[in-house]
Design a protein that fits this description.
With 92 residues, the chain is mainly β. It contains 1 helix and 6 strands.
Length: 92
């Protein structure tokens, strides 16, 4: 079992966490102006990166807080975790 380092609680077993999708996806500035196709793109289309990827995670069985992580999708290894208010590390 892999340990994930929650920024608030420290390392915990991966079963305590839930994946929340791609990190740093900005909410539309004027959502009322979006067409159905634009909404579909916002909701369903995400990057599918092989390698280092910024993701959102929730510590649902612990502090219940959201945080971001950079994870290598080929090895599943977490390279770093950071709070939502911290800047995104360079992933390329």
């Amino acid at each position: 079992m892999q340990l994930i380092a929650c920024p608030w609680c420290g390392p915990r077993e991966e079963t305590e966490f839930s994946y929340g999708g791609q990190a740093h996806v900005p909410y539309p500035e004027d959502p009322a102006a979006l067409s159905d196709e634009e909404w579909a793109h916002y909701v369903f289309f995400r990057d599918n990166t092989k390698g280092r990827f910024a993701e959102r995670w929730n510590h649902n069985a612990g502090c219940r807080r959201w945080f971001n992580a950079v994870r290598d999708t080929t090895t599943y290894r977490f390279e770093s975790v950071y709070r939502l208010d911290e800047p995104k590390p360079v992933t390329s």
